[in-house]
Predict the structure.
Amino acid sequence: MSEALMSTYARQDLAFERGEGSYLYTADGRRYLDFGSGIAVTALGHSHPRLVKALQEQAARLWHVSNLYKSPEQEELAAKLVAHSFADKAFFCNSGGEANEGAVKIARKYWAAKGKPEKYRVITFDGAFHGRTLAMLSATNNKKYLEGFGPKVEGFDHVPLNDLKAVKAAITPETAAIMVEPIQGEGGIRVVPTDVLRALRQICDENDLLLILDEVQTGMGRTGKLFAYEWADIEPDIMSLAKGLGGGMPIGAVLATDEACSGMAPGTHGTTFGGNILAVTAANAVLDVMLEPGFFDGVQRRSSYFRQQLAMLSDRYPDLIEEVRGQGFLLALKTRIPNGDFQAALRDEHVLGVTAGDNTVRLMPALTIPEKDLAEGISRIEAACRRLQGQMQAEAAK
């Protein structure tokens, strides 16, 4: 059957039949601790009862009507997101790549509506990942992803991460916005310091630019707050969301201030499936859980414990682990051996991680994971480290 699929993924020889909480189960009953969360998607874990109930009830009523008609479910979700963020308006789409496309379109349209269509360029950062569309590949500027797809889409200027002098030097009369991930996910869980995010906000204010935050991976509680920008005590003009927003259902969103999206009139942007009733129902349920009192306190407490335990592992196995990176439950181990080998060793211990750039392995448990499951995960990761270290010592002795 796999021969019918395009070979765009180097898929692991592993398939799952069901999930429950922090665990995934194969058809033959093997249990894996899921520290990948579908690449930071299943924020509430697998088969969360509130999410299951909401989807089952909605699936029996109505699935899709398109954006030709009013959607009370969309209106409810938009109101929640606006009430708990900087934004005044929300637009719903299907994925993070689409959300980032929408964010850039909103920024360009803002200036065109003000009579300055020449302001269309966006400053982005080396090591970023903004999606797989042609435009977002150009925003990302990774040669590996760009190769074979023709000329880059014009309009993106790239500077080193955290280099404020380079940012200022890149600004021209054509610059419309600066776009940044608070933590680079695919780039290797590289954290943008809060003082740099504050400086970028100031640079935008001083140069009359829009600040776009790509929170596709960092948003929806991943860092221990609903949105990562909250740690820096700043507000963007435009923000993209996806991944954890639907808890596993495909949905993306673009949030913006009234001013930033003032150029977006009927017909300027659209989507057939975006804001689909099932996806929005899931997102409403996810938000309801996350906005309950104490939810983020629990995420911060348990993620702090997890990071401390990982740091202790790093101290015990310095030949394997160079650094622990990240914030909240968006963490990574920078490894001294090939990250694919480390990921495979974790998988042999029935722990699922996700490789990323800069030779890292991401560890992104569900935000709801109990401490006992984290402790089990640490035990299994250490078992993988012991075996890898033994293999290294055996090789050295030959």
